[in-house]
Structures are given as structure tokens and as C-alpha cells.
């Protein structure tokens, strides 16, 4: 695997102050660029490709490995 290749996508609620704080910390720690951070509260976000509905995603932070 090459450096900088994203390996994990994290779904978070960008309208939640606690979630934003956690994601900011993870972003700072992700020095190799391995994380894709997806705001599920962003306009246009479509949960269909995640295998979960929006209510489930909003319940807690979810992640999936990337190919």
C-alpha cells in the first residue's frame, strides 16, 4: 500500500459539536492521509451507497474500509 492511499472512510455528523471535535482530532492524527472524512449532514449526502439509512448513521460515528 502506498503512503497517502486512503484506507478508511469515516461518516460523521458535521452539525454535532462533539463529532466535529472528534473528527478534527482524527484529522490532525492522520498524517499519512489514510482517512476519508464524510459529513453525513452535508447537503447532497446520499446514504444509499453506505448500506445504512441516515437515521442509523446519525446514531453514532460509522466507518468502512476502502478497497
What is the total tally of β strands? 3
Helix content: 25-40%
Average pLDDT number: 92
* Strand portion: 15-25%
Distance between the amino and carboxyl termini: 11 Å
Q: Could you list the spans in which at least 5 consecutive residues all have pLDDT below 50?
A: none
| H and E order | EHEHE
Gross morphology: globular
Tally of alpha and pi helices: 2
Assign the structural class, choosing from mainly alpha, mainly beta, alpha/beta, alpha+beta, or little secondary structure: alpha+beta
Radius of gyration, in angstroms, nearest whole number? 12 Å
Multimeric state: single chain
Major sheet, described briefly?
3 strands, mixed
Strand order of the main beta sheet, please?
2-1-3
Structure description:
With 67 residues, the protein is an alpha+beta fold. 28% of the residues lie in helices and 21% in strands. It is built from two helices and three strands. It has helices spanning 17-29, 54-59; strands at 8-12, 35-39, 62-65. It has a three-stranded mixed sheet, covered by helices on one side.
List keywords for this structure.
alpha+beta, 2 helices, globular
